[in-house]
Amino acid sequence: MKSPKPVTGWPTLLIVLEAIVCERERQNILFADGKIRFNCACGDVPPEKKFVVLTEELGEVAEALQRPGQFSTKVREHLRSELIQVAAVAVAWAESLTTKEDKCS
Ligand SMILES: [Mg+2]
Q1: How far is the CA of 78 from the centre of ligand 1 (A)?
Q2: Which residues contact 36 (CB under 8 A, 6 or more apart)?
């Protein structure tokens, strides 16, 4: 089975960025509900703890790559979901390091 041809360009980027924002919101809700111990967006969480969360998420990407049927819709969607989670954790961590003076560069 061949992998579906990916869509490229701004529409795809916006879809992915929206998914990351949704995942960030999901993480915030989990934290507010006490289902996760800390939020990587918080500045008072030690970076070592954030690094552990990020590498755990990355490990789940590696695990997803081990699944048979790389081109099946189910496996592809799972891999995409895990990649979104990695990105959301990285974004949360970056949020914790961001000040009002920071701009796009
Ligand atoms: Mg994950």
Answers
A1: 9
A2: 27, 30
Nearest to 88 by CA among 44, 31, 46: 31
CA 19 to CA 50: how far, in whole Å?
21
d(CA 105, CA 88): 20
- CA–centroid distance, 101 to ligand 1, in Å, is 31
Residue 58 alpha carbon to ligand 1 centre in Å: 7
Q: Nearest to residue 55, comparing CAs of 84, 20, 30, 89?
A: 89
- Could you read off the pLDDT of 47-101 as tens digits, one per residue? 999 999 999 999 999 999 998 887 799 999 999 999 999 999 999 999 999 988 8
Q: How far apart are CA 31 and CA 51, in angstroms?
A: 17
CB of 39 within 8 A of CB of 45?
A: yes
Reduce the DSSP state of residue 52 to 3 states and report it: helix
